[in-house]
Amino acid sequence: MTAYLSRRFAGMAVVMLMVAAIVFVIARVVPGDPAAVMLGSNATPADVAALRAQLGLDRPLPVQFVLYLRDILSFDLGNSIFLNRPVIDALLDRAELTSWLTGMSVMIAVLIGVPVGVLAAVRRGTLLDQAVTAVSMLAASLPSFWVGLTLIEYFAVRLGWFPVAGYGDPGAALGARLHHLVLPAVALGLPNSALIIRFTRTSMLDVLHEDYVRTAKAKGLGPGAVIVKHAFRNALIPVLTVIGLTIATLIGGAIVTETVFGLPGVGNLIVSAVLRRDYPVIQGALLIISGLYVLINLAVDLLYAVVDPRVRY
Amino acid sequence: MLSFKSGFTALAVGGALLLGQVLGQAPAQAQTKSAIDIATIGEPGPLDPVTVTSDLVSIITQHVFETLYAFDGKWEAAPLLASALPQISDGGKFYTIPLREGVKFHDGSTMTADDVVTSLNRWLKASPRGKLAAPAVDAVAAKDAKTVTIKLKQPFAPLLALLAMNNGAAAIMPKALAETTDTLKTYVGTGPYKIVEQKPDQYIRMARFDGYQSPPGAASGYAGARKAEIEELRFVPVPNATTRVDGMLAGQYQFADSLPTELAPKLKGAAGVEPIMVKPFGWALVIFNQKTGPMANPLVRQAAQAALTPEDMLLAAFGDPAFFEVEGSIYPKGTPFYDEASVKGYNQHDAKKAAALLKQAGYKGEPIKILTSPQYDFLYKMSLVAQQNLQEAGFTVDLQVLDWATLLSKRSDPGAWDAFFTYHTFVPEPTLITIMNPAYPGWWDTPEKKAALDAFNTDTDPAKRVSDWKAIQGLFYSQVPAVKIGEFYNLAARSKKLTGYTPVPWPFFWNVKVGG
After folding, report:
1. Can you give the pTM of this predicted structure?
2. Which residue of A159, A167, B356, B399 sits 20 to 30 Å from the alpha carbon of A174, by its own alpha carbon?
3. Tens digit of each residue's pLDDT (9 = 90 or more) over A295-310
4. A42–B128: do the CB atoms touch at under 8 Å?
5. CA-wise closest residue to B149 among B92, B94, B99, B100
6. Residue in A41, A92, A269 closest to B422 by CB
7. B18, A96: Cβ pair inside 8 Å?
8. Average predicted confidence (pLDDT) for chain B
9. Residue of A nearest to B167 (CA)
């Protein structure tokens, strides 16, 4: 186990370094200039050049890259050009919202996806199964911005049950702030629940045909016990993988939803940073997200061993 | 600085931290406090009113920082932190500015002439607007504790207007703060509101400044009495325009800026919401590269001017004529610099004339690189019509659709473009129009323009300045550094509970009440 973990962590370090290099190159290859964006369209090229020099953007790219690597190796993500503050502070400010949003979305996706998927597999070929398959196909293909705008129109503007946008008034209680996240979480969770439904259904169907399930039934176990104890536990591994991937995708994929709902989360920060060409923020945010992605993958792999004792590392 | 490692750990243990937050959460703000939420187009970034010229920064910072003068309802300069208009002597080269007494800064200190002198020197050095005035300024000095003098090398008529602008503003701040050469990080002004908290991409919270000393006189435009009726202002960045509209309809915001014109009917039909049309607001233009490429030839530029159809472009961009005006005068009707006579060649749509001019210019079909951006939907739609117009006249058009940041960066390189689409917010003083600056991309720097602009800047007689401006506008239409496409208006909205609001290009919220 220790050897396995050491290998995985060494691999992660290499991946992170590669990500750092790729993100740096991509950010700089795209044309655009943070100084020009910051000063506005009235600025002359001389004004822009002066600010570039002040920000150190006039240095040769290799020099900037070496300085960037040095900062990363000393665990420093640098300062946001536009926000005039450390990148890590900007990210931490937004991590709370994105964590809640991701958590709530995953909860919605799992609470809908797993039971409905199991039900569809158990009732395979019935009208219910066909309806679940059709609806989940539809839900998976709905763009989250459209779902978001529709939810706003009905549940926020017409019915007034939820706020349209934002994350609550300054100093608002957590409950009030989470109230702001209900609609975005649904907008994000619904399409992902469809994915989990389909995976759970397929995985359960595979397992339901196994010999040990037939044996359990032959032993006279009730259908509930067969499904929950024997089939579901074994069907869980691929479902766990897709849930892990969903979490990782949601962390980065909340971008559109956060923009539609005006939420100050990590996704929104990344979009704004790209539009402003705020290189340190783009680099820092992508590094952190890549790190989380790699960690979630590791956690999912380790969870396999918990769910299935036959798996050994 | 927090390290990457500590940040990473914090993210990993986010759940525990959040649980802590649940337990330790402060109660909601007292509901008795009067507060409004103002939905803006996005996060403004550093709130330095001097160095940053974005409209959003001006809208927000004008509540915090004040200038010596401000524009009244007729767009004329009126005293704000000064107690009277300047006494101008020595043939327009010496300004004596009396200051109001007892004006307090947000840190409790009293404004002195020293603060003003240091602030003006920072503005001359660091503000794009100040840099326009700097070559004409010899020295700024404190005559006594309540009088400031500005000595000029030569008369410079736009000075008063520049001192009154809230964009790239000559903002007055305490001497210690004004000595900062970098972008401001702390915000101490004399305005009716002070900044309490800035959470990037979430809100900027301002509280009424109890020590505020209002200027005397009836409120007019940005000038006259200022009273902070509302206790707390919250500027909330909402980049998605549809969300701003929905937030107004749901009553979440009390004011929303820059709304899509196609959603105007939705706002008009809503109870409790009042749509606002801001006139004048801005004008769209296509700027030509006069340094290199085919557009460096004036005949080619004249051909483009003849080929374009501003009327169709405006219709494509805004749909409803209520939101625009086909207007060739750079200054709209009702302003002192409005002039119809010198607008020759506007809105021609004459492909034959354009083709003849191209032939005369010896144009061989070289591609015309036109930069446009879908981030400003109206500019993008205009550029599509322009592409059609120009192709009909015989131009080969290479329309490059870029994001705004790329366009801003690309336009600095004379070799990378021939024309670009942009817009200009209304400015009361012609010298502030970007293309008047020879260093601005497009590089309009002919001897005729320089002579006309010099005359305009040194004439102090207002009537003479008006006729000087007509000459400059005449040159704009004969030398064609750009084509004005037309006037457009800004759609905003306010809650009907918000009273006393004055529609202006940079909205402000003093003298505004919220009730019922």
Report:
1. 0.83
2. A159
3. 888 887 887 777 777 7
4. yes
5. B94
6. A41
7. yes
8. 90
9. A42
